[in-house]
Every structure is written in structure tokens, then in C-alpha cells.
Write the C-alpha cells for this entry.
Amino acid sequence: MGKTMIELNNISKSYQITKNNSLKVLKGIDLNINRSEIAAIVGKSGAGKSTLLHIIGTLDKPDTGSMTFEESDIFAMNDKQIASFRAKDVGFIFQFHHLLPEFTALENVQIAARIAGSTDEDKAKELLAEVGLGDRMHHKPSELSGGEAQRVAIARALVNSPAIVLADEPTGNLDSENADAVIDLIFTLRKKFGQTFVIVTHNEEFAAKCDRIIKMTDGMITG
Ligand SMILES: Nc1ncnc2c1ncn2[C@@H]1O[C@H](COP(=O)(O)OP(=O)(O)OP(=O)(O)O)[C@@H](O)[C@H]1O
Ligand SMILES: [Mg+2]
């Protein structure tokens, strides 16, 4: 297997604003994501960063272009196969943790595993211990700090051993101390599991630490 895990070719995406007016948000993106790399996507608000991340995660489909994962043409697959790729091979981390409020930290991580068909109950515990929350597993989201809740969300993103974790401003809602803890954790998880991450961030210090900075301007990659 080669080094490249995901390859995007000529991806474009427009949104229909009115009947006669559409907004071109991605304008022919070519991008390779390598196995075990931590790549940062940076750029101004409205540049198309989240849209690109959603397409890589198949939360959205491009208008043109293709994406291959381990040499499979993802958008040529049927919806069921695409959903299976999303559930098994992609983990998501967002700015807000989006944990289910009625469930404990452990249950939140286990639910994600069960949805993907896993019966391994211990994996969730191991990951919560790994993110430093071994003694907070039975707390509900309202009983966790913001940084702790985000670390639960990271454990949830990793529970199905996804090929790639996509993070959209994962430190955007955290103070600098908690942001630093999340950043350190991401690097630890890469070291330990060889985990691949693509991370949209406005945090310049974080971006500078990543293996590669992908700069987006007005729907294009410009650096
Ligand atoms: N569903 C939609 N319908 C119409 N326009 C959209 C839609 N989603 C995004 N856009 C527009 O597409 C452009 C790119 O949005 P996107 O969310 O990808 O930007 P971003 O780079 O992530 O910005 P930010 O840093 O503010 O999160 C923006 O101008 C936005 O208004
Ligand atoms: Mg965004």
C-alpha cells in the first residue's frame, strides 16, 4: 500500500442561493491525504474549509470531481456503501462536542461503537482512559468541563478505529489550557495508533505544529 490514503481530484461544489443564482464554494480542489499525517486546513471564514471537510467525510457530495480512499472511488459507490465508509472509516470531531446529554461519557462512546456494529464494550473504556478520563466515565456531559467533554468526543471519534479523523475547529470553543490538552492528545493518538487527522483550525500555533498546512482562499487551495 502506498503512502496516499485519500486522493481528491478536481472537487467542486456550489450552493443554489436563488433560482438563478448559485455560489461556487469549492473550485477544483486537488488534494492528497497521507496515512498517519496530521494536516491542518487554514483560511479565512467562508473560504470553504468546512465544506471541504464535509465532502471528505461524505456528509456532503461534490458537484464534480472524485475522491478515492485506498483506491476505491467513494462517490461512485451507492448510498449504502458510502454510509458504511462514513461509519467505519471516518471519525468526526466538531467545535462543540455534541455529546448526548442524557448519557454518560462511557455510554456516549459505546453508542458510537454499537452504531457501527461493534460489540467490543471494552474499547470505549480503554479510549476514555487514554484521553485521561478513566475516572470520569460515568459522568454525564453536564458533569464534565468543556475540555473533558471535548476529550470524550475525541474518544468517540476514535472508537471504531477510523482510517481518518476529521476535526472542524476542535479547539475553537476551549480556553488555551484545554486547547493545549486537546492538541497534545491529538499528537499522542497519532503516535500511539498512527491515526490520520485532517483538522480545520484558526489556531495558528496548532497549525504550525502539524505536518502540513493546507491554505484555502476563496474555494481554492493556495498553499
Ligand atoms: N448550505 C449552504 N447553503 C448556501 N451557502 C452555504 C451553505 N454552506 C456554506 N455556504 C457558504 O459557503 C461558503 C463556505 O462555507 P464554509 O462553511 O465551508 O466556510 P469555512 O471556511 O468553514 O468558514 P468558517 O471559518 O467561518 O467556518 C460560505 O460563504 C457560506 O456562506
Ligand atoms: Mg467552518
User: Anything to note?
Assistant: Residues 49-50, 168 surround magnesium ion (ligand 2) (CB under 6 Å). The mean pLDDT is 95. The beta strands are 4-18, 21-34, 38-42, 64-69, 72-73, 90-93, 164-168, 196-200, 212-217, 220-221.
